[in-house]
Design brief:
The structure holds two protein chains of two kinds. By secondary structure, chain A is mainly α. Chain A has one domain. Chain A is 75% helix and 0% strand. In chain A, α3 packs parallel to α5. The longest helix of chain A has 27 residues. Chain B is an alpha+beta fold. Among the domains of chain B are: 51 residues; 41 residues; 70 residues, Beta Barrel (Thrombin, subunit H), CATH 2.40.10.350. Chain B is built from four helices and twelve strands; from the N terminus they run αααββββββββββββα. In chain B, the strands form two sheets. In chain B, strands 1-2-5-4-3-12 form a six-stranded antiparallel beta barrel. In chain B, a hairpin with a 3-residue loop joins β4 and β5. The radius of gyration of chain B is 25 Å and the shape is globular. The chains are: A mainly alpha, B alpha+beta. At the A-B interface, α4, α5, α7 and α8 of A face α1, α2, β1 and β2 of B.
Chain lengths: 177, 288
């Protein structure tokens, strides 16, 4: 009896760990990109990486990244990067809403189409972010960071997607618990 | 445990995202209505993360330190060449500086010069880059008993790096001179022409509002100005460099991309204690 309870407990723990991997990996990435290290200005990758991860996990494992968790991640990202309060939760939720709306079609498509959709997604996110920052700070910001963000998204997605797919099929799969 | 029926669960799952979106939009409105919400939460996050960053940044600092193989490999060759060239220049400037120091001393003695108070300062280690695409700031450690370091001036070996905008018990957030929100009154060149240095989020801040008809000269040294009361006079920032026609920028002396250790000068505290001591002495002298 005790052995069965223990086994169930470990099983539940394993499932919980696997389900929380997407949110945990985004938190860890946001944290570690702030460590001053080998490459200068690596912290600028935070926004792109967070948007990319939310896009990927919402597409392949929406149950592992519920909206309240996305809000917490957005808040954390916004607070750590000096962004106006509340903007990043909205941006990440809009990404999530867009992906969820087109998920049934997207999930059956090949890599190129999903990549192209992500480029549109990061472009819209960057433009909305730029406009929100300009309005909330009452200033006209330079346009180059927005273009940089889109460019980074374009280049980083194919580089990081193998890693995310490996996680999706292995450690982030609660059904393998 | 509360068991919900399938239709209720379905409705709840469909409502979660719109409710969260409305909540987040509410956060934006609340953040604009009361800026202190964001400031307080940011301070709490900084304080919570500071010990973690302190632990994590140490191995990285050791890894890229010039004293070990990897750090030496990364920067040694170019660094040696740069240092050799800089050393030649510095030797020339040393003799100029010695002559000027002697002249300055004699002028001070003739003018009964009263020296400005030496500010309190401490050394702080950069533990995290807390900037983003639209912000340039770093997190530094502060000693436990150093409350009230807000507005302290951060400098590295070269010149001014930024200003403390938020300070907690363990950490302080420094707004770098390259941040878009940074506005610093400066004086330029030998005549000390006043201007405003504005960050652009790029590597070099721009110069604005210089006196009409007297644009900053290429290569002129840019120093802080005491206008506005935050910065003291005469801290080195950089040199003027024209990026285009009528577009002067400041090339910082500080290595903005390799900030590791900074000195935080508490000029405000120094000036306050100096003025309070001065007023005390005046009161004592005027007492019958």
């Amino acid at each position: 009896m005790i052995a069965m309870v223990q086994r169930n407990l470990w099983l539940e723990l394993d499932r919980f760990a696997r389900a929380s991997l997407p949110a945990l990996s985004i938190t860890v990435a946001i944290f570690f990109l702030g460590v001053p290290g080998l490459f200068p200005a690596v912290a600028a990758l935070r926004d792109t990486l967070a948007a990319m991860s939310v896009y990927f996990w919402t597409l392949y494992r929406p149950s592992s990244l519920p909206a309240p968790i996305t809000v917490v991640l957005g808040l954390f990202l916004g607070l750590i990067t000096n962004a106006p309060f509340g903007v990043w939760p909205v941006l990440l939720l809009l990404t999530q809403a867009g992906v969820l709306a087109s998920r049934r079609i997207l999930v059956r498509q090949g890599f190129i189409l999903i990549w192209a959709t992500f480029i549109v997604c990061i472009l819209v996110t960057s433009v909305v972010e730029y406009c929100a920052f300009c309005i909330l700070d009452f200033t006209v910001l330079p346009i180059s960071p927005m273009l940089l963000q889109v460019g980074l998204g374009l280049l980083l997605y194919p580089l990081l997607v193998p890693l995310l797919i490996a996680a999706h099929r292995g450690p982030a799969a609660p059904e393998l618990a | 445990m509360l068991r919900l029926s399938v239709p209720v669960r379905l409705v709840l799952s469909r409502l979660t995202l719109p409710v969260m979106l409305a909540l987040s939009l509410g956060m934006i409105v609340a953040g604009q209505a009361d800026r202190n919400i964001g400031i307080a939460l940011r301070g709490a996050v900084d304080e919570a993360l500071a010990p973690l960053y302190r632990v994590v940044s140490r191995p990285m600092a050791v890894l890229i330190s010039d004293r070990n193989a990897l750090g030496a490999w990364i920067g040694m060759h170019s660094e040696v060449r740069r240092l050799q060239a800089e050393n030649v220049q510095l030797k020339r400037w040393r003799s100029v500086a010695l002559a000027l120091a002697a002249q300055n001393q004699s002028l001070k003695s003739q003018l009964h010069f009263v020296p400005t108070p030496t500010p309190a300062f401490f050394t702080a280690r950069v533990i995290a880059d807390v900037g983003g695409l639209y912000a340039r700031s770093v997190l530094v450690t502060v000693p436990r008993d150093s409350h009230g370091v807000a507005d302290a001036i951060a400098m590295d070996g070269g010149g001014v790096v930024g200003r403390v905008v938020q300070a907690g018990a363990r950490s302080a957030r420094i707004l770098l001179i390259t941040d878009l929100n940074s506005r610093i009154p400066v004086s330029i060149g030998r005549n000390g022409e006043h201007a405003l240095m504005a960050g652009t989020n790029g590597p070099v801040p721009r110069l604005l509002f210089w006196p009409p008809g007297r644009p900053p000269a290429e290569g002129a040294v840019v120093l802080t100005s005491a206008e506005g009361g935050i910065f003291p006079d005469g801290l080195p920032i950089g040199v003027v460099h024209y990026l285009g026609r009528n577009d002067p920028a400041v090339w910082p002396f500080a290595s903005m991309n390799r900030l590791r250790v900074l000195r935080l000068f508490e000029y405000q505290r120094g000036l306050n204690s100096f003025s309070s001591k001065a007023s005390e002495s005046i009161v004592q002298k005027t007492r019958p």
